[in-house]
Amino acid sequence: MNDSNKDSIQEYDSLKDVIEFQNNMFNPGYYVGTGKVPPTVSAPGNAAPLAVSCFIASAFFMALGLFLFFSDVIVVSSGLIESPLANKIIVLIIMSVISLFFLYFGFAYLKKAKRYYREKKAIENEPADETVKDKIWQRTCPKCGISHDIDYPKCPNCKFNYLDQKF
Question: What residues have CB less than 8 Å from 45, skipping those under 6 apart?
């Protein structure tokens, strides 16, 4: 297998995923148990706002736990434990776990945001071909091999219908 075939195998075509989703969006069992994820869920994007909000939520819950622990507020977590110190320790542990949960997702979203910015920078640094900038994208007909504008639903030469083709 040569290098050009390896690149075409690893290339991701999001249009096929969108078409597959549109064809099966009202089929309730299509994505269940198959390991496939709909593009509406796995859509790539900037995750930096989510990372920031998770870090803020983590700090808020940790501050709330520390406030409840060190303040004179009476914390009643259950009727089984009568000691106010034990109740405050339980609440601090619960708030710490919630804070760590948000901290974990904050770092996960931060990792996704870094990947997004890295890919965006790679796309922006690609050399742009100025001659192709104002042209309409071209499509090559699989039947006759003639190139034509991508917005035609049929090949103008041999009348091959692209809408009947399954993806």
Answer: 116
Q: Is residue 15 part of a domain?
A: no
Structure confidence at residue 14 (pLDDT):
64
* φ/ψ of residue 91, rounded to 5: -65, -40
Total tally of structural domains belonging to the chain: 2
Whether the Cβ atoms of residue 138 and residue 149 lie closer than 8 Å to each other: yes
- The boundaries of the domain holding residue 57 are 46-125
pTM equals: 0.53
Dihedral in degrees, nearest 10, Cα atoms 75, 77, 80, 84: -20
Q: Which residue has the higher pLDDT, 134 or 70?
A: 70
Establish if 159 belongs to a structural domain.
yes
Same domain, 51 and 107: yes
SS3 assignment for 25-94: CCCCCCCCCCCCCCCCCCCCCCCHHHHHHHHHHHHHHHHHHHHHHHCCCCCCCCCCCCCHHHHHHHHHHH
Domain check: are 52 and 115 in the same one?
yes
